[in-house]
Amino acid sequence: MNKSSAELPFIAHLIELRNRLLHIVLCIAFLALPLSMYANDIYALMAQPLMAHLPQNSTMIATNVTSPFMTPFKLSLLTAVFLSVPFILYQFWGFLAPALYKNEQRAIFPLLIASTFLFYCGVAFAYFVVAPLALAFFTSAAPNGVTVMTDIEAYLDFVLALFFAFGICFEVPIFTIVAVWSGFTTVESLVEKRPYVIVGAFIIGMFLTPPDVISQTLLAVPMWLLFEIGLVMARLKMRPVKEVAIAPTKVKKRRMKPKP
Q1: Closest alpha carbon to 170 in 131, 227, 129, 215
Q2: C-alpha pair distances (Å), 7 with each of 11, 12, 100, 119
Q3: Confidence of residue 239 (pLDDT cuts 50, 70, 90)
Q4: 194-208 helix and 152-169 helix, angle to the nearest 10 degrees
Q5: Region 103-118: what's the mean pLDDT?
Q6: Do residues 190 and 180 make contact, with C-beta atoms less than 8 angstroms apart?
Q7: Interior angle at CA 116, CA 80 and CA 216, nearest 5
Q8: 189 touches 198 (CB < 8 A)
Q9: Do the beta carbons of residue 193 and residue 227 sit within 8 Å?
Q10: Which band of pLDDT confidence, cut at 50, 70 and 90, is reported for residue 245?
Q11: Which string of DSSP letters, residue by residue, matches the chain?
Q12: How far apart (Å, rounded) are the C-alpha atoms in residues 115 and 167?
């Protein structure tokens, strides 16, 4: 009896996890089906930053037999996943919330919303700012006599890598706040390491962006500013915690005073 009663909660958690994963898959499929009907239009929208900088009478090419169909379909599926991120995080939150204390729930739920917003901001920044500048650099760097004709699959992989890199890098405030809240580090320690953080931001920008100073700076500077925002938010959140922690100690001291 004890063994079966101990296994029951674990099995119940597995069933709940399976149901939530099934809901996520159904949500992605529900969005992917209509988006697949406009797969070519979605890819044309994604290709605008490159098409705007291609030489006159130059087009993109498909080197694989299945690329004209599979590449736009792959993009429509990834677009469905991208649009499903709030629902995915909601399912993730619903699975973890019962195991958390109320104060932890109040802390994590805003972080989930903020992380989603920052990820979308990073992708938008990459599409509207970084991608046009990077593609303008690459197309202008072609030697004389070379016509730029990019493969549609290679372009999609390049753009997705750029979007993912900026989406993750825009999560710096969340990483900073979580590191301070968890006690892994302190705000004062991070302030002392600020010069190293700035150098590290430029190093990350060098590896994640095309080999030009503009793209590197466009990633490094926002990372640094987001790091500073994370420090400010961590300070604001740590103040009430310190006040609550100090108050009970004062009460205890008063109670321990000997009576006259």
Answers
A1: 227
A2: 6, 9, 21, 38
A3: low
A4: 170
A5: 81
A6: yes
A7: 95
A8: no
A9: no
A10: very low
A11: -HHHHHHHHHHHHHHHHHHHHHHHHHHHHHHHHHHHTTHHHHHHHHTHHHHTTSPTT---B--STTHHHHHHHHHHHHHHHHHTHHHHHHHHHHHHGGGS-HHHHHHHHHHHHHHHHHHHHHHHHIIIIIHHHHHHHHHHTPPTT-----BHHHHHHHHHHHHHHHHHHTTHHHHHHHHHHTTSS-HHHHHHTHHHHHHHHHHHHHHHS-SSHHHHHHHHHHHHHHHHHHHHHHHHHHHHHHHHHHHHHHHHHHHTSPP-
A12: 9
C-alpha dist (Å) from residue 155 to 1, 50, 159, 257: 59, 9, 6, 74
The amino acid that residue 174 corresponds to is I
* β partners of residue 151: 61
Cα separation, 202 vs 82, whole angstroms: 27
Token output for 168: 């993750």
3-state secondary structure 130-187: HHHHHHHHHHHCCCCCCCCCCEHHHHHHHHHHHHHHHHHHCCHHHHHHHHHHCCCCCH
Closest CA to 31 of 89, 85, 90: 85
What is the residue type of 39? A
* Amino acid at residue number 99: A
Token pair for residue 133?
């500048």
Q: Determine contact, residues 170/121, Cβ cutoff 8 Å.
A: yes
C-alpha 86/C-alpha 194 separation (Å) is 32
Nearest to 122 by CA among 50, 225, 51: 225
Q: Would you mind telling me the total number of residues written for the chain in this entry?
A: 260
User: Which of 99-103, 109-113, 241-245 shows the lowest mean pLDDT across its residues?
Assistant: 241-245
Mean pLDDT over all residues of the chain? 80
